[in-house]
């Protein structure tokens, strides 16, 4: 519906300016889904008698199954695709969701899972290698940092964004994302410095090292501690409470968070409870321990936002939903589905 309405109302005015109609396609898991979208695009172009390729798409590779079908997705959408993009936060969620029942595939606390980890760096490199072999652009992922008023904190944000964008440009990506307009120039200047005046690096050839399924599927090391769990709880509560009030993107603790953040947090917690993970201090992470920390963190949130905001919000029902999602026997595919009745 969104696709059709946007095309119908904009294709002519865009054609008058020499432009096509451009889309991002998220959440694909297979080449069959990509082929379905390509069929929709082709039908639309034929129906409105516009040239093939008027519709152009960038496909987000943000699910674990899709990373194993990137060649096939490119082929299925060859008449319309221009780029593939690393959707890294959703990818981490998809990794947990896909491998949730495998005790040997448990990730550590999400705050320690960055693009410098081997399985995520391999995902980035494989996307570049696949795209450039077929003449498609390879987009990097989003840096979730937002500007800070405190000079020291802003210096830390700047360093983190530069580090992230240097890694992506050196891996061969042609462009990237940031979460806040004020950081666009910083990301652009980092890429421009590496590209040396070029608009892309389609000629970049990845190092001749094979990226194996073993690397893509191997989890990373990291902390599993109480402080990390408690922070995950607070972030998920803040985000879900905002979502059920109609807000899709929310600044939380210096990062622009979206649904993927809450998804990673509750998937992380679900998997730890499901497999009885032992924390770094020796405690076994159980549903009972999670329940205690969850409702203690509600009090922390009340202190952070104040009584007026807390009682005007919907934090209590959010906590009940979060507990149910994180401890249910069956893993819910997306937290938004059981959240819709609360909207």
Automatic annotation (TrEMBL):
<dbReference type="InterPro" id="IPR048355">
    <property type="entry name" value="MS_C"/>
</dbReference>
<dbReference type="InterPro" id="IPR011076">
    <property type="entry name" value="Malate_synth_sf"/>
</dbReference>
<keyword id="KW-0816">Tricarboxylic acid cycle</keyword>
<dbReference type="Pfam" id="PF20659">
    <property type="entry name" value="MS_C"/>
</dbReference>
<keyword id="KW-0012">Acyltransferase</keyword>
<keyword id="KW-0808">Transferase</keyword>
<dbReference type="InterPro" id="IPR046363">
    <property type="entry name" value="MS_N_TIM-barrel_dom"/>
</dbReference>
<dbReference type="InterPro" id="IPR006252">
    <property type="entry name" value="Malate_synthA"/>
</dbReference>
<dbReference type="Pfam" id="PF01274">
    <property type="entry name" value="MS_TIM-barrel"/>
</dbReference>
<dbReference type="GO" id="GO:0004474">
    <property type="term" value="F:malate synthase activity"/>
</dbReference>
<dbReference type="InterPro" id="IPR044856">
    <property type="entry name" value="Malate_synth_C_sf"/>
</dbReference>
<feature type="domain" description="Malate synthase TIM barrel">
    <location>
        <begin position="1"/>
        <end position="218"/>
    </location>
</feature>
<keyword id="KW-0329">Glyoxylate bypass</keyword>
<comment type="similarity">
    <text>Belongs to the malate synthase family.</text>
</comment>
<protein>
    <recommendedName>
        <fullName>malate synthase</fullName>
        <ecNumber>2.3.3.9</ecNumber>
    </recommendedName>
</protein>
<feature type="domain" description="Malate synthase C-terminal">
    <location>
        <begin position="225"/>
        <end position="341"/>
    </location>
</feature>
<dbReference type="InterPro" id="IPR001465">
    <property type="entry name" value="Malate_synthase_TIM"/>
</dbReference>
């Amino acid at each position: 519906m969104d696709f059709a309405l946007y095309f119908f109302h904009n294709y002519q005015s865009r054609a008058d300016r020499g432009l096509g109609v451009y889309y991002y396609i998220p959440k694909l898991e297979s080449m069959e889904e990509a082929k379905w979208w390509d069929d929709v695009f082709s039908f639309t172009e034929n129906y409105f008698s516009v040239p093939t390729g008027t519709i152009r798409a960038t496909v987000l590779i943000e699910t674990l199954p899709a990373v194993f079908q990137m060649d096939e997705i490119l082929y299925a959408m060859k008449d319309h695709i221009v780029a593939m993009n690393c959707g890294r936060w959703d990818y981490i969620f998809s990794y947990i969701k896909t491998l949730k029942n495998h005790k040997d595939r448990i990730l550590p606390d999400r705050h320690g899972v960055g693009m410098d980890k081997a399985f995520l760096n391999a995902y980035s490199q494989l996307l570049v290698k696949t795209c450039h072999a077929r003449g498609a652009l390879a987009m990097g992922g989003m840096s979730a940092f937002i500007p800070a008023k405190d000079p020291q904190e802003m210096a830390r944000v700047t360093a983190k964004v530069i580090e992230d964008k240097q890694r992506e440009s050196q891996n061969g990506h042609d462009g990237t994302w940031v979460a806040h307009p004020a950081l666009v120039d910083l990301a652009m200047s980092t890429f421009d410095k590496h590209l040396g005046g070029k608009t892309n690096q389609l000629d970049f050839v990845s190092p001749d090292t094979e990226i194996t399924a073993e690397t893509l599927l191997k989890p990373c090391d990291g902390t599993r501690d109480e402080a990390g769990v408690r922070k995950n709880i607070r972030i998920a509560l803040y985000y879900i409470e905002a979502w059920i009030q109609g807000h899709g993107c929310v600044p939380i603790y210096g990062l622009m968070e979206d649904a993927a953040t809450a998804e990673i947090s509750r998937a992380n917690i679900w998997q730890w409870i499901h497999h009885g993970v032992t924390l770094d201090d020796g405690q076994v992470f159980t549903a009972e321990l999670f329940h205690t920390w969850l409702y203690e963190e509600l009090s922390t949130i009340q202190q952070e936002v104040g009584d007026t905001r807390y009682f005007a919000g919907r934090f209590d029902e959010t906590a009940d939903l979060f507990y149910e999602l994180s401890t249910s026997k069956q893993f819910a595919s997306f937290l938004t589905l059981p959240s819709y009745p609360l909207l």
